Amino acid sequence: MLIDTNIVSYFMKKDTRSASYVPHLKDKTLYISFMTVAELYKWPFKRNWAEYKKQQLIQHLHSYVVLPYDDALAWVWAELVVKTQTAGKSLSWDDSWIAATALRHNLPLVTHNSRHFEEIPGLTIISENRDNV
Questions:
Q1: Is the pTM of this model over 0.90?
Q2: CATH: 3.40.630.30, 3.40.50.300, 3.40.50.1820, 3.40.50.1010. Which one for 2-126?
Q3: Which of 24, 70, 103, 131 has the fewest CB atoms within 10 Å, counting from its CB?
Q4: What is the DSSP pairing of strand 109-110 with strand 2-3?
């Protein structure tokens, strides 16, 4: 399972929405994209976090296997971006890398923002957001 940034955030903040994802994630290997790490590393700079809080973030991320950038991922990303642009759709920079990571590794994407990803061919989405489906 590739876990989207919002789901990682829910678990980190102990957000009540995280409970609905527990059945999907239980006893599974939890992967995150390098892009999710980058997105979360922005928080301390945007919110002027104290050092102890930065360390909590780093510790929380040890719960996941980080899938790094590689050449094959870059090819998948490039094709995905061109296909979505050609179809008149747009993906954010962050979401495009996360979607490409899921496709590259043939993993379902667990997200609360299914609308961001719903029209990507070949991408399996798992979401409990009933307002967003």
A1: yes
A2: 3.40.50.1010
A3: 131
A4: parallel
